[in-house]
Design brief:
Aminopeptidase, globular, alpha+beta, 6 strands, 5 helices
Length: 142
């Protein structure tokens, strides 16, 4: 299935994300109910970015949520989730490649903040990162 990242910035777009995409994220320190209750704040409080993965029919099939840590100059992935019906082994590679392009584009903007080409990823499934790093903790830097 051909999926494409689309950034969302409005509460109406946020509400289109299927609840199960958040519920299937393991190891989260927040509840899905609280996330939906605070949806506007989650979207509007910088430096956070939300993208949805949309299929060719404009159906939401996944999400990617990051926070930019301006002090460490790194991208921190809060959540990445893809609908099981269209998920495959290339999802992680696709997300990492997308974030590397995001970092490059972000750094091309005239700003005092320049991000390092490092991505912090908190995961309960470090085995999925075996092609990228040798994980020793839940925080994976790729």
């Amino acid at each position: 299935m051909n999926l494409e990242f689309v950034r969302i910035t409005t509460l109406d777009s946020f509400k289109l994300i299927p609840r199960h995409l958040f519920e299937q994220i393991g190891g989260r320190s927040w509840t899905v109910d609280r996330l939906f209750k605070l949806g506007t704040q989650v979207l509007t409080m910088p430096p956070k970015c939300f993208w949805v993965l949309m299929d060719e029919n404009s159906h939401v099939k996944g999400l990617l949520w990051i926070v930019i840590d301006v002090l460490s100059e790194k991208v921190n992935v809060i959540a990445f989730s893809v609908d099981p019906d269209c998920s495959d082994e290339s999802d992680l590679d696709m997300a990492i490649e997308f974030l590397r392009r995001f970092i490059k584009d972000f750094n091309s903007i005239d700003s005092d903040i320049k991000l390092k080409d490092k991505i912090n990823w908190i995961t309960d499934e470090p085995e999925k990162f075996k092609d990228h790093v040798i994980p020793k903790t839940r925080i994976i830097e790729v």
